What does this fold into?
Amino acid sequence: MTGVRVVVADDHPVVRSGILGMLAGVPGLEVVGEAADGERAVALARDLSPDVVLMDLRMPVLDGVGATAQIAGPGPGRPRVVVLTTYDTDGDILRAVEAGATGYLLKDATRAELVAGVRAAARGETVLAPSVATRLVSSVRIAGERPTPREAEVLRLVERGASNAAVGRELFIAEATVKTHLLRAFAKLGVDDRTAAVTVARQRGWLG
It folds into this structure.
């Protein structure tokens, strides 16, 4: 991956400078803008067309979730948003991913982890810190719980062979949101892949 353009959004100047320092000099990465609040991050994403926006959650004017929803909404060519925060509570994680974030990393990530996360996000891959992935799945692992209407819609489209991107286009939601719905459905079904999810969901009558 070469030529990845990055915008860094964080309201703390020292933290923002630290992130910029971690990314400085990395081959194939270029920080093209920095923002101290969510509204500015949205403006930079619109004006500079970065590949990835590193987004803090707690910022003035417009918080990270609100900014993510505006930046990463459905549509081609949208920047990927990777949340970079000190918070790993279930509510924060789910709100960010449902807003369209492609990834969720914590600020104790190493330079190598941060760079790898940015590059993976630019390729369209989901990037989750291990502790965040565990929380995301654990928060919805409720035995016997039925899917929400939206989760059932996603499963029906997956049953028809649609990719995550195709499901997102069909339902007018971000691909990262599709992945969140699938993770929730996997947890409720006790499976960990799409094929098993469709098979078990059909057996339970969820796709009728």
User: Anything to note?
Assistant: The CA atoms of residues 136 and 194 lie 17 Å apart. The radius of gyration is 17 Å. Residues 140-144 have pLDDT under 50 and may be disordered.
